[in-house]
Structures are given as structure tokens and as C-alpha cells.
Amino acid sequence: MKVVLDTSALFGMEQVPPGWEAFVTEGVLAELEKYNDRRAENLLPAIKVSQATTASLSKVKEAARGTGDSSRLSRTDMEVLALALELRAAVVTDDYSIQNLAAVLGVEFMPMSMKGITKVLRWNYLCTGCGKVFKEPQPDCPVCGSPLRTTRRR
Ligand SMILES: [Zn+2]
Predict the structure, then answer these.
(1) Which class would CATH give 2-110?
(2) Who surrounds ion ligand 1 at CB < 5 A?
(3) What is the whole-number distance in angstroms between the Cα of residue 139 and the centre of ligand 1?
């Protein structure tokens, strides 16, 4: 099954479920970088990065104007929808405006919170300096100040 993940879906996912061919847009990756978020870094090797064509993006923009979702959707949101439209993929998102517009466009969508799609987030944060492990995210190691790396909790 082909799916396009938005930023909220990436944040909520521990691993790409078996049988999924997962895509993200460059905009979603840019958002991850902007927030310096490491939660998704284990997922990224299993995910393809792609971009929608301007033609698909125009269709989405037009639909968003029609439903009044334009003001609630970022360019990244619209690109996610456009890519799903183009790939005939489902959108995985917890954003109601994206879900709403997906319905209008005839794009299948799934909330991340749907049972069976995802396991509850279980991450550890490992210090790259002193090796201490934290259960909660920290900007850097409170002990030695080194950057933390996300690891899957076992
Ligand atoms: Zn440390």
C-alpha cells in the first residue's frame, strides 16, 4: 500500500508498517529539520522522498479554495495532498483540515491514532558523549552537554 506521511504522522510513527510504501515530501523533511526533531530519523531510511507536480498542486489549491481550507493549510500540507493524489496513495495525518480536503479530492486518508497503524511512541535518547540514556527528550545531555541520539526503546 502506498502512503504519504505528513509531519504529524512521522512524529507519531515508530516504524513503517510492513507492506507500506511510504513517501514524504521535501517540505515535510524541511519541517523536521527546522524543529531539529530526531524522532523520525530511524524511519527515514525506509521512506522515499518525492515531490508533487505543479499540476497536482494546483488541483489541491483549487479544492482548498472551494472548501475554505486554504487558510488552515500550509504549503507543505498541500504538497502532501498533491503527492498523494498523484501517486494514488493514502494520506496518513492527524490534521483535520488535511483529512477534510483529502475527502473532497477523493484521496484516502488515515489518522495516525488509528489502532493497528502505530504503536505508542517508545523512544530512548542516548547521549553521544557520556552514553547516558534518557527516557524524555532533552535539547542536549544535561550531564555533559553532548547531543543526544534517538534510539528505539526495547
Ligand atoms: Zn552526556
Answers:
(1) alpha beta
(2) 127, 129-130, 141, 143-144, 146
(3) 12
Three-class SS string for the chain?
Answer: CEEEECHHHHHHCCCCCCCCEEEECHHHHHHHHHCCCCCCCCCHHHEEECCCCHHHHHHHHHHHHHHCCHHHCCHHHHHHHHHHHHHCCEEECCCHHHHHHHHHHCCCEECCCCCCCCCCCCEEEEECCCCCEECCCCCCCCCCCCCEEEEECC
| Ligand 1 centroid, distance to 134 Cα (angstroms) | 10
pLDDT digits (tens, 9 = 90+) for 61-80: 999 998 888 888 999 999 99
CA 120 to ligand 1 centroid distance, Å? 26
In this predicted structure, the answer to whether residue 118 has a pLDDT above a threshold of 50 is no
pLDDT of residue 151: 73
What kind of fold does domain 123-152 have according to CATH? Rubrerythrin, domain 2 (2.20.28)
